[in-house]
Amino acid sequence: MNTPARAAQPIGIFDSGIGGATVLRELHLLLPHEDILFLADQANVPYGPRATNELRALSAANTYWLRAHGAKIIVVACNTASAAALQWLRAEFPALSFVGMVPAVKPAAAQTHSGVVGVLATPATLQGELLDEVVLRWAGGTTVVRQGCPGLVEQIEAGAFDSPTTLEMLKEFLQPLLAAGADTIVLGCTHYPFVAPQIQQLAGPQVQLIDAAPAVARQTLRVLAEHGLVQPHTERRGEITYATTGSPAALARLIAQLGLPPGRVIHAST
Ligand code: DGL
Predict the structure, then answer these.
(1) Catalytic residue among 21, 58, 71, 78, which?
(2) Segments in the chain below pLDDT 70
(3) How many CA atoms within 13 Å lie on the side-chain side of 150?
(4) Is the CB of 191 within 6 Å of ligand 1?
């Protein structure tokens, strides 16, 4: 396929579930002319407690599906899958370009005044080598307190952003970070920005929350530009397709509840 024809193909994004939509909405803001194909692997959510081999197999299945549906680039909009599988995917699919995610420890370390940064993430992300690498590289002199959030992704998938159970969980997860003096908290899972207002309310106005999604959108643009794959501006707005391995009706409800950009919602068999 020639380059202009490839540039017209969609940007592919995947996550275990609705979390990847926090990246999708930033991408759509930055690149409104691009078609976006978002795959939410909701039949297998949550990814957080899974083993590396399993996460690699699921990530490969998602990549095959997006490639078969014409994706010109793959954005791994999932910290957990990136931690377990990003390097591996690049080796398995050398002809494809991938953009991945890592908890935003670098900007957090640059912004903290107290010298203590908290990272909220899934168990698999906290155990992954990627996080160790960024902490070693960018957080010299900063104390990084890591907190796993088991169960939180399930609450968000259920649309229970304000439920007493969710608020109790958030209180419990924030307590060790605040007790350690964290003034900057990294949202190290793409689902968590959907409960950022609740986290901010519980943590207090002096705490800064950091979401990597805008930076990932900018990085996607850079990689597309390097490969000559940016869709030229026209009158036409980019179309969004939301695909799920779970229930399209449930995903459509969540999209409406969250006020996400409208799009077609389909079922995917990966
Ligand atoms: N949203 C994903 C992440 O960024 C995965 C969450 C999960 O499925 O446990 O880590």
Answers:
(1) 78
(2) 1
(3) 3
(4) yes
